[in-house]
Amino acid sequence: xxxxxxxxxxxxxxxxxxxxxxxxxxxxxxxxxxxxxxxxxxxxxxxxxxxxxxxxxxxxxxxxxxxxxxxxxxxxxxxxxxxxxxxxxxxxxxxxxxxxxxxxxxxxxxxxxxxxxxxxxxxxxxxxxxxxxxxxxxxxxxxxxxxxxxxxxxxxxxxxxxxxxxxxxxxxxxxxxxxxxxxxxxxxxxxxxxxxxxxxxxxxxxxxxxxxxxxxxxxxxxxxxxxxxxxxxxxxxxxxxxxxxxxxxxxxxxxxxxxxxxxxxxxxx
Length: 269
Description:
By secondary structure, the chain is an alpha+beta fold. It folds into two domains: 2-223, Cytochrome Bc1 Complex, Chain D, domain 2 (Orthogonal Bundle), CATH 1.10.760; 238-268, no CATH class. It is built from eleven helices and eight strands. Strands 1-2 form a two-stranded antiparallel sheet. The protein has a two-stranded antiparallel ribbon with strand order 3-4. Mean pLDDT is 85; it is low at 9-31.
């Protein structure tokens, strides 16, 4: 199953009404308008087992150092990745956990609080709440920001607490700044990034890696997506058949019903 995610196109009338509301009601209610950077489009192909395996490898061995995926168990991954249990344990493994355990972070909560001041969110929750395009843009849009404790920031998540764990692979990036709004106030807003240093991967290679990670996260956050797509047409066909059958029964029933007016006419005669 392949799905393409791209930035939503707003209708002109809706955009105009939104602008009027923000302009007219901002003083009374406090405007929170923020200039949003464009999201990078991405195609999610849940049939691409190579992408799922590569994404699982990076997620389990890099992201799970801080994040958890408690919506999925290690034992459910071989089927998703198209691997046997032995192949999964040999190539990806369980980071020392039991095979039937949920995927949890190996970092103690106290260390997380001391390092990033906030507990990293569960990735299955994030993948459900955010679109694939948002996740893809987030992973590829870290930029150098000396004012932040971690030294980096992100175009789609301003003042992000997460460090740039992909800097060695992607290289460092600098922001593309424009004059915009942040929570209703004029500010310089990052709407894109440009390369600053070269990482161990080329730009195309890292973009592919980020797409693989997003594909894997989408697959585990929506485990029944393929089944829903396969059963959907059959369910709609069933409802259509039931609608036709119900209408025919309705016509047959009312053909045999004697109205009150006809009944009294017959009695009177």
